Amino acid sequence: MSAEATNPVSAAEAAVTDASVRRRGRARIDLRRIGRAALLGATAGPAPRDRLPDAISHVAEAHRAHHPDADLTVLRRAYVLAESSHRGQFRKSGEPYITHPLAVTLILAELGAETTTLTASLLHDTVEDTEVTLDQVRREFGDEVAYLVDGVTKVEKIDYGAAAEPETFRKMLVATGSDVRVMSIKLADRLHNMRTLGVMRAEKQARIAKVTRDVLIPLAERLGVQALKTELEDLVFAILHPEEYETTRALVAGNPRAGDALDAVAEQVTAVLREAGIGAEVLVRPRHFVSVHRVRLKRGELRGCDFGRLLVLVAEDADCYGVLGELHTCFTPVISEFKDFIAAPKFNLYQSLHTAIAAPDGAVAEVLIRTHRMHKVAEAGVVALGNPHVGQETAEQQDPAARTDDGERVDPTRPGWLSRLLDWQQAAPDPDTFWTSLRADLAEDDEITVFRADGGTLGLPAGASCVDAAYAQHGEAAHGCLGARVNGRLAPLGTVLGDGDTVQLLLAQDAVSGPSPEWLDHARTPAARIAITGWLRAHPEAAAPPAAGAPRPRINVTADRRSGAELHADLEGEPPAAVRPAGCCTPVPPDEITGFRVRGGSVTVHRARCAAVEAMSRLGRAPVAVRWGAAGQGRVTLVAESFGRPGLLADLTEAIATAGAAVVAANVEPPSEQRVRHTYTLHLPDAAALPALMRAMRDVPGVYDVSRARRGASGPRRA
Description:
By secondary structure, the chain is α+β, with helices and mostly antiparallel strands. Helix content is 43%, strand content 17%. The chain is built from 27 helices and 22 strands. The strands form five sheets. Strands 1, 2, 3, 4, 5 and 6 form a six-stranded mixed sheet that branches. The chain has a five-stranded mixed sheet with strand order 8-7-11-9-10, covered by helices on one side. Strands 19-20-18-21-22 form a five-stranded antiparallel sheet. Strand 5 and strand 6 form a beta hairpin.
């Protein structure tokens, strides 16, 4: 995973980094000096067994800061193998190649990664770029380290050609599904690559930066690793938007005392909390360049407090709300800026209270309030969670579901969005579809939770519809979705769901139903789009456009019209074919009927007086003799004309249910001159009961006519 040299980030940004490092009590790491130490270590022979090589002393120091009792022996062995296997390899900057795995490991050590992750990080390029084999890594360091190294190892370009990059990401994501530490190593690897990208050609810098922007930064956001995400954003910003970056850099450099205003507010906040008896640490957090750029676009001219935010760290969750109360009491709060991510954490584990206060001089300061534990997770995300499989052996003995059907262990920290991604990627037929769908999926930066009728929940991207919910809950069985109830009411499949909605999906009982091409207009998730596209590709007749001049049906709940009463067609000397009633006139026994061959070889049955029969006869289409079988069930479409009044829909559906019919589809047209038209497609257990059903519907107050529906060339008509 080669990375090349010279940092595109300015001296001003480096100064910010220097300051943040000094606040943590450690000097800035000089990677060039580490590289020279590694090179000298190679000429002077291996380090004695009783001490660590000088080249990884910074890694050891950072690791011990988070894990004081960590055993560093395995890190020494990993470094010796990595250094010896990469010996003689150099980066384009001229540095020994070992500086790259060292830098990646240092990034993870600073974030608090545990020893196994750091071991794999030191070795992450050995299998890809040296003679070291995965079996050798497994023998010397165990299965977990080998799994992590294999997860971040690229697929061979000679085998995959142009598809190598998408297939590498597919491989990494699948590995991440079993262990999120795989993606932690990849993100740190990409961060160091981006830091040292300057010696590459401009077009290659841009290509790598775009992939980082579209894939790696969203993954860092979703995994909660804000420390990596913010620096990656700035590095991408510098490459892809150099003019805006330079403007922002100059703005920050031209306001060296911008932080003084926040320092003053921080002192006031500290005094208020001290007087209230709340133990808290109040820090000033400068905004990174992309954040400053966004604030400038939002607010125009920036003031001193706009260049950073206050961070208040407390010990307990309850203290967060105590701090919030004091701030809103002693300062003027900006209510529109308040967000509670403690009671409702974001889908990437992030928890914090956000607010903004106006100081006496009128300056508005944004404030983040969180516990020390929340802050660690907010900065390091899944890296802060450590080994996700610690103690899982016991859990697997108690719960066999802790492993998948194929025996693979399941990462208990796997977020819901990753599970959905892993599901749909299996259905992606080719690398291009996967790559396009992955970028679209990761572009969704918000998530909602909807409740299923059975009490379960579904996590969906914001803006998802009932179509997306159907495929998320039922997979390919959603092809037969007839409609949905949202919060207890019938709703179109295109209805956009909101956070907290309850959705009940109505599925056809037969296996021949399929999605309409219009579903693609409402599908937001890759899982739904891939499944619908695949079905339509396999059933081209379903995707055929309607005849010229034919109106598009206004149906709110998509009906399956392919099942009904038993029908027989006389096809002497011809192969057998599926026979089904036409949706335009929905014949039921004992209607007089006739049939016609349609695309795909099936026979569609119409009522003899249907306008479609006249049209086909004019076109010279030969009819097929059809007849009713013994069964008396069927489907029929009825049109009820009524005057508008409250409760009419409920009364009509109650009358239908009392008569023993089942509503398959329903549509209510907008009122016109106080009159309303209801169209119902109904399943009748006994077609002979149709006259009684129509009488029962006519008896509903406000209904003045109920009739059979048929569709001719000019649109729906009453029979």
